[in-house]
Amino acid sequence: MLSVNGLTKAYAGKPAISDITFTVQPGEVVALLGANGSGKTTTIQSICRLLEWDDGDIILNGASTRGSPGFQQNIGAVLGGCRNTNWRLTAKQNADYFARLRGVTGKDVQQRICALHAALGLDTYADKEVMKLSTGNKQKVALLCALSYQPAYVMLDEPTLGLDFTTIAELQKIIEHQSQHSAQGFLITSHDLGFIDKICSKVVVLDEGRLLFRGSFPDLKAKLFTYEFALCLNNNADYKTILETCWQGRYIHQLIDNKLIVNYEAAEQCLPTMHFLHQHRLTPLELTITMLSAETAYQTLLNQKESV
C-alpha cells in the first residue's frame, strides 16, 4: 500500500500543501484533483522523491520512502512536460533504458514494451528519436517508459494531455487491465473529468494546499451541483426575500454585479422562483437556467470549501 500521511511542504515559508493524507491500494485507481496551484504537483513530486517535504511521511509497503532507496523500482511516473524521456533515443530505447535503470531486464520486459508500444500507436514512429515526435507522441513515450517495467504504483500527471480520442481510449484500457490483472495502483491528476470518471474509484480533492475531499466518486458526485440559475432584476431587487421564500434543499448562491447565481441539484428547485416572479409581476433583465458540465460542477465544489 502507498500511504501519504500528513504531508506538508512550504516554499519560502509559504505553505504549498498542509497535512495531506490519503492512500492508494494495490489495484486501485485514484484521482488527485484540484485547481492550478492546489498542491497536486508538489504531492506527486514528493511521492517520487523529486523534492523533500517538511513534515509527515510517505509509506510504501510499510516503510518510509525516505529510508528506502529501492522504492524507485516500485514507483513509475509521467510528469508534466514529458521530462522522463531521453529525446535522443527512440521510444523503445527509452523504455528499455529506464527499465534497466531499475534493474528490470529480460524477455518479459521486452515483450511488455512491444505490446505497450503498439497499444499506444507508436509503431509508426518506431525509428524516430523522441525529439522529432509531436507533443502528443512524446506524451505517449513518457507513458510507455512509466509502464514498461511494471512498477507497483504509477503516478500520472495529466496523462491525456495532447492525446487524441483513440489513444485516450487505449490508455483507459491499459490502466484498467494493469490495475485489474497486475494489481498496479495508479494516482492520476487530470482536468479531463470525463476520463477520470470512467476509470477512478476514489477521489482526492485539494484546494489551496489543503484536503477538501477524500472518498468515492459516487460520494463526490453527490456533492456536485447539476444546475445553475442566473437571475438579474433591477437595482432595487430584493434577492434576500427570493432566497428565503423560494429556495429549499441543497444549493449555494452568490450575488455578482446585481445578478443572483444559484447552483443547485434538482431541476424543480427553481420552480418556486419562477412562480414568485410571475406572482409579483417581476420582469427579469436576464434569466438563464443551465445544466452544468462536469468541469463546471466540479468548480462548485471548490466554492463550497467543505473540508472532509
TrEMBL record:
One Pfam family cited in the UniProt record for this chain: ABC_tran
Q: Which UniProt keywords apply?
A: ATP-binding, Nodulation, Nucleotide-binding, Transport
Coiled-coil intervals in this record? Answer: none
Q: Which superkingdom is the protein from? A: Bacteria
User: What GO annotations for molecular function exist for this entry?
Assistant: ATP binding; ATP hydrolysis activity
ATP-binding as UniProt keyword? yes
Q: Which PROSITE patterns match?
A: ABC_TRANSPORTER_2
Q: Per the database record, which ranges form the ABC transporter domain?
A: 2-233
What the record says about family reads: Belongs to the ABC transporter superfamily.
Report what the protein is called: ABC transporter ATP-binding protein
